[in-house]
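Sample intake — YKT6B protein
Collected from: Pelecanoides urinatrix
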Amino acid sequence: MRLYSLSVLYKGDPKVHLLKAAYDVSTFNFFQRSSVQEFMTFTSQLIVERSELGSRASVKEQEYLCHVYVRNDGLAGVVIADNEYPQRVCFTLLDKVLDEFSRQVSKIDWPSGSPATISYAALDGYLSKYQVRPPRD
């Protein structure tokens, strides 16, 4: 069971944009990592774009499950995991991350923010903390 990506996005008008993201592409071939990361960013934006405000969904994309939560205020989160990762845990993580993000980052910054301008450092820690490590022999 693995988590590959955790993203915070803003569903604005007219389009969705990425505010902050963390990725774990360590299981992929070195030469594939940047394209896998681009695929995850693109997929996250597309899923948020197609989701209604106030909705939660799990979408299968290739061998991944993308869990999306779009709040009524336009703040959205996406977790990309493998098929075995528990859906309930993904939505618990998204609730926690979006609540914390909205407390730490002013709502004024959401429509114009980008990964370079938004100061929120907790995503990498959450991605690591919620990663299920295989047991060692």
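Post-analysis note: The CA atoms of residues 9 and 18 lie 4 Å apart.
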